Amino acid sequence: MPAPDRTAAGHRVYEDHHLRRLVFVRRGRQLGFSLDEIRALLDLAQPGRRACGDVKKLAAMHLDEVRAKIADLRRLETILSDTIRKCDGQADAPACPVLDLLEADAVASS
Description:
This protein is mainly alpha-helical. The protein has helices at 16-30, 35-44, 52-86, 97-109, and strands at 5-6, 12-13.
């Protein structure tokens, strides 16, 4: 992003185009786009560079990533829900299903 002008006192002076770009970046991050993806979208948003097909391709790739994350989160929800349901909250730590699950994942990762 181009640096904004500064006043004589050194304060930044943001113009409308700076604010629009900042809002664009913030909204892109809220939607889960990476900074590289946002740079590509900003480049495509420049006058004379609008290529809806390219934007659609980027958005479709991002949607595939979002859907994969949702599927992972659903699997995680099921695993955690099942594990919590098995735990009566009364057992000592060596017999705790939640800790067993975490330990099993730690062993599998190493």
